Amino acid sequence: MRDKLFSKKNNLTNFKFNKSVADVFDDMVKRSVPGYQSMLELIGLSVREYGKDNTNYFDLGASTGASSLALGLNNIHINNNIIAIDNSKEMTKKCKKNLQNKIDNISVICADIQDIKITNATVTVLNLTLQFIEPSKRQKLIDNIYKGLNSKGVLIIFEKIHFDNKIKQEQITKLHLDFKLANGYSKLEIGAKRKALENILITDTKKTHCNRLKKAGFKNITCCFQYLNFASFLAVK
Ligand SMILES: C[S@@+](CC[C@H](N)C(=O)[O-])C[C@H]1O[C@@H](n2cnc3c(N)ncnc32)[C@H](O)[C@@H]1O
Questions:
Q1: Looking at the domain assignment, is residue 136 inside a domain?
Q2: Greatest CA separation found in the chain?
Q3: Which residues line ligand 1 (CB under 6 A)?
Q4: Residue 6, in any domain of the structure
Q5: Ligand 1 centroid vs 167 CA: distance in angstroms?
Q6: CATH number of 24's domain
Q7: What's residue 188's pLDDT?
């Protein structure tokens, strides 16, 4: 369904992952996140490379299930469980509906990713989700993921980022605005969504991400992809 959520002036409320968002999420994410499709491809490559037989793959903040689908369709290993977690009931409902008949080794769970136990994991995905966790709690979450990963397991993070340099920040923000305009959003919609996401989506710099991963204990950390103000990180235990 086409995302028209912010096309009316009266929709200037706080952003929530409710039914209205779940219904248009797939269209929203494609038209507003540069590199989203490449990120899904990267998840596919990573599960082939880092997945192992008899282990778990976690998709944290799974939304409608695109990352889980990338994990499932590209998996070349045997006896794996894909565990997709989201704390939005509407998202988990949609995720189950989208993935039924497509992957059979998946459990979709409605829970807070900060409360779950990660065990026997070789691949864990945090795709556009860490940015919605309270900044003071992000290190604990990454530490928990690290503990639950097997040796040589991978954490894949994709996030909106910001830049310390003011000019760089302005230049890239302007190009991101152009990206959304080119994808059919109006200036009114873009402004309204930005307002609704204020204090809800809180970005970090690349340096903050890398330092956090290092602090958790990850041995090899690479920023392996960036398109404007969106970047992905591969962290191998
Ligand atoms: C931008 S979406 C993620 C997109 C998705 N990973 C993908 O690949 O398309 C962020 C998701 O994180 C979920 N979320 C935010 N905070 C969460 C938390 N503490 N626990 C579980 N899910 C959370 C939201 O409900 C939302 O569905």
A1: no
A2: 51
A3: 17, 29, 61-63, 66-67, 85-88, 91, 112-114, 127-129, 132-133
A4: no
A5: 30
A6: 3.40.50.150
A7: 86
